[in-house]
């Protein structure tokens, strides 16, 4: 089948024949004979015009060069090429894609700008940028009003509606449902890229204000979750709970659970008791209008009143305090400078939270995900979306130009929406077993592996190393949990720029499998699964992208049909 | 060399609502460490550890599943052929306890009749936030024929016990013949002793990567 196959397979089970292995130094464990056989094949198919890789791409397949060690001169000329391209009045997107497949320069702001172009957020015509940007950002602002401010305002003011209204049209019903989803998002965003200090630090961009209202500051979504969840957080345990993201603030009971039957009701005080219990719907209904235990009234008060009620405010203060400890404790370990940063952040957090203007970056991420979920009820929120939004947001928020960084929220929202529009089938459960869904993608991956390397494929099948065991996460999260963040950025450069776009993901997966071939052949089931679930960091990302490119050229039948 | 040998492989699954600490329990058991920033699980994660029960070395292969509803269809495929199922709820969140019957239905329907199901109430260190009493959960466990322990992935309390008690029950079932090793989906593999050369590729659990 493949012209490289005989070479690779002939000697793979034993010591690799030195004649096959490239004499150049290669990455430690990527030195599988087949990898190099595949890599070493001159790409004749490239001539057929199927590749998007420019001939001048400074990649030597046999000797993968790590990002930093490329010859300085080549790096400069490459940067100059990007610079020239990006400065043109009308940017040549096709050329930009070609260049970006090989990686976007690390020069400040470049990746942030190029991703916006590659993800169709910015048009190629620079003259149109101000109008397009203004339009899109205004649109996002409207979304915020629509999704966050207005429903809330409606619940707060409508006389005929009330929290216990079980009419399907009740705004409160939707509000509670949203809170459930928010709680999920909230848990996840707090543990988004926790090794990166950015997300725990305070954004210098103030929380957006409502446009339609009287300029009121938008409510904090995490405060809404906390309020709805009624955590008892002042205790030592509560603080700890906030501080450790795996024990993220939990609902004592979800808003909906407030109305579930509970035979274990007791008179715990709401914010200070040793236990909290959930009133039954009937009980809550009874107590809604009449005087009753302070606990139950406080439940409603906390849900209804933003911060006016002193008890609620007190509780929220406690929440803030605990969150601040979480902030400082989670960032203190990073470095002394970030400790200082977090300290000052903590103070400013405490000072301004009441005013509701400043927030941590993860809160911004939370809002983007919530807006997306509300605008796309068919997918809503699925765990893992935060892992896709995270790197994107990071790049935009750290743009050195404040002109860009100040708008990272809206810009990231639109780019995230583009990515989701192209990959969302992976997130939709009922598509799982279809060709379009994640099941189909994983089957494709094994078929491609079979085509590339029947021996390896047979070994994987024999050991029962199924694609769901490892590639489910690879594909849905676009490798964001498999590599260090800089490598994720590099990989996404290639994906966003590639002609096949997300169709290229399949070839990256195959390249990753083939790159650990010898270990997959040698290992037992458990070793193989651990290897693939904890992908060896010593394998250079360039080896993988280069190999993936070759595979995409060589096996065009595995390209997505819809491209 | 001899220490790498084991007589049996038991397959486990860990199930339960999102955020109850399934991955943290696995990590605490395999690495003896608490991982505070454990990311959510997408699909499944995998971990192993060799333990000793009645003088027999047993390798536990543990599948940690994603808790979010979206992943249920995917994670259901892991139930098959599990010798042990650890069903986890969070003692500070009643909703996770309320969902146990649905997890139990899945576990009963999708595993074989001899699968040992063990109930764990995690986060027992957060006593002040307790939302589900021990007695209530114990009664649920007794009513459904489950073994039950409250544990803390954070302090490590009862974590070892949960995994090892499950293994003891499975081992007992093998001894008394109620678990048929030849059945296709018993979740147990017997290794011929001494470990043959095929096992050379296997590494001790301590050296392998974190499955979390």
From TrEMBL, chain A:
Q: Which GO terms describe its molecular function?
A: GTPase activator activity
Q: List the InterPro entries hit by this protein, alphabetically.
A: Rab-GAP-TBC_dom (IPR000195), Rab-GAP_TBC_sf (IPR035969)
Which stretches make up the Rab-GAP TBC domain?
105-499
| SUPFAM superfamilies, alphabetized | Ypt/Rab-GAP domain of gyp1p (SSF47923)
Q: Which Gene Ontology BP annotations are present? A: intracellular protein transport
Composition skew (Polar residues), residue ranges = 1-15, 272-281
Report the PANTHER family cross-referenced here.
TBC1 DOMAIN FAMILY MEMBER 13, TBC1 DOMAIN FAMILY MEMBER GTPASE-ACTIVATING PROTEIN
Protein name per Swiss-Prot or TrEMBL: TBC1D13 protein
Q: Which organism is it from?
A: Capsaspora owczarzaki (strain ATCC 30864)
TrEMBL record, chain B:
Could you name the domain of life of the organism this protein comes from? Eukaryota
The record's keywords, sorted A to Z, are: Acetylation, Cytoplasmic vesicle, Endosome, Golgi apparatus, GTP-binding, Hydrolase, Lipoprotein, Membrane, Methylation, Nucleotide-binding, Prenylation, Protein transport, Transport
Q: Where is this region: Disordered?
A: 185-212
> What cofactors are annotated for this protein?
Mg(2+)
A Pfam family per the record: Ras
**Any single GO BP term:** endocytic recycling
Q: What is this protein called?
A: Ras-related protein Rab-14
Phylogenetic placement of the source organism: Eukaryota, Filasterea, Capsaspora
């Amino acid at each position: 089948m493949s012209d490289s196959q005989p070479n690779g397979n002939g000697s793979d089970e034993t010591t690799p024949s030195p004649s096959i292995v490239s004499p150049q130094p290669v990455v430690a464990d990527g030195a599988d004979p087949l990898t190099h056989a595949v890599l070493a094949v001159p790409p004749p198919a490239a001539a057929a015009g199927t590749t998007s890789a420019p001939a001048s791409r400074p990649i030597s397949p046999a000797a993968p060069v790590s990002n930093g060690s490329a010859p300085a001169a080549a790096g400069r000329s490459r940067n100059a090429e990007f610079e020239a391209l990006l400065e043109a009045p009308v940017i040549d997107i096709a050329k930009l894609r070609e260049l970006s497949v090989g990686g976007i320069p690390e020069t400040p702001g470049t990746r942030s700008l190029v991703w916006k172009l590659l993800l169709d957020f910015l048009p190629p015509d620079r003259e149109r940028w101000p109008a397009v940007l203004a339009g899109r950002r205004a649109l996002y602002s409207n979304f915020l009003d629509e999704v966050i401010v207005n429903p809330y305002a409606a619940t707060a003011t409508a006389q005929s509606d009330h929290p216990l209204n079980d009419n399907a049209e009740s705004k409160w019903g939707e509000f509670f449902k949203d809170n459930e989803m928010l709680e999920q998002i909230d848990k996840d965003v707090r543990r988004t890229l926790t090794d990166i200090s950015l997300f725990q630090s305070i954004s210098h961009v103030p929380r957006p204000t409502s446009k339609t209202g009287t300029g009121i500051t938008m409510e904090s979504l995490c405060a809404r979750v906390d309020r709805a969840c009624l955590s008892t957080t002042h205790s030592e345990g509560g603080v700890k709970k906030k501080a450790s993201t795996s024990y993220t603030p939990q609902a004592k009971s979800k808003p909906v659970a407030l109305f579930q039957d509970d035979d274990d009701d007791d008179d715990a005080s709401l914010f200070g008791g040793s236990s909290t219990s959930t009133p039954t719907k009937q009980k809550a209904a009874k107590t809604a209008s009449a005087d009753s235990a302070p606990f139950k009234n406080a439940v409603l008060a906390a849900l209804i009143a933003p911060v006016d009620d002193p008890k609620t405010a007190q509780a929220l203060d406690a929440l803030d305090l605990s969150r601040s400890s979480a902030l400082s404790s989670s960032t203190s370990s990073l470095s002394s400078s970030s400790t200082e940063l977090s300290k000052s952040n903590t103070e400013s957090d405490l000072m301004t939270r009441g005013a509701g203007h400043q927030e941590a970056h993860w809160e911004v991420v939370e809002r983007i995900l919530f807006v997306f979920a509300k605008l796309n009820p068919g997918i809503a929120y699925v765990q893992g979306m935060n892992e896709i939004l995270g790197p994107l947001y990071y790049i935009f928020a750290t743009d050195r130009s404040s002109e860009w960084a100040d708008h990272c929220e809206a810009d990231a929202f639109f780019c995230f929406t583009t990515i989701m529009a192209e990959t969302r089938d992976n997130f939709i459960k009922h598509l799982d077993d279809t060709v379009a869904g994640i099941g189909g993608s994983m089957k494709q991956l094994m078929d491609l592996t079979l085509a590339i390397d029947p021996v390896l494929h047979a070994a994987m099948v024999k050991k029962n190393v199924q694609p769901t065991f490892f590639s489910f996460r690879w594909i849905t999260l676009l490798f964001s949990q498999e590599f260090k963040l800089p490598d994720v950025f590099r990989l996404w450069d290639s994906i966003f720029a590639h002609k096949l776009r997300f169709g290229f993901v399949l070839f990256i997966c195959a390249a990753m499998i083939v790159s650990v071939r010898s270990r997959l052949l040698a290992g037992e089931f458990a070793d193989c699964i651990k290897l693939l679930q904890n992908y060896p960091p010593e394998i250079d990302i360039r080896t993988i992208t280069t190999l993936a490119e070759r595979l995409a050229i060589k096996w065009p039948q595995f390209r997505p049909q819809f491209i | 060399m001899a220490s790498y040998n084991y007589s049996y492989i038991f397959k486990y699954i860990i199930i339960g609502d999102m955020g109850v600490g399934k991955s943290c329990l696995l990590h605490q058991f395999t690495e003896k460490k608490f991982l505070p920033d454990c990311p959510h699980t997408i699909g499944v994660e995998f971990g192993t550890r060799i333990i000793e029960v009645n003088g027999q070395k047993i390798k536990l292969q543990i599948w940690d599943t994603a808790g979010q509803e979206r992943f249920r269809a995917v994670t259901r495929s892991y139930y098959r052929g599990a010798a042990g199922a650890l069903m986890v709820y969070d003692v500070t969140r009643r909703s996770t306890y309320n969902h146990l019957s649905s997890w139990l239905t899945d576990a009963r329907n999708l595993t074989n009749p001899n699968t040992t199901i063990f109930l764990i109430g995690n986060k027992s260190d957060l006593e002040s936030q307790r939302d589900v009493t021990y007695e209530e959960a114990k009664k649920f466990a007794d009513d459904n024929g489950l073994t039950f322990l409250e544990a803390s992935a954070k302090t490590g309390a009862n974590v070892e016990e949960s995994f090892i008690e499950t293994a003891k029950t499975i081992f007992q079932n093998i001894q008394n013949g109620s678990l048929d090793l030849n059945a296709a989906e018993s979740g147990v593999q017997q290794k011929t002793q001494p470990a043959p050369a095929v096992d050379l590729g296997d590494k001790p659990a301590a050296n392998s990567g974190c499955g979390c």
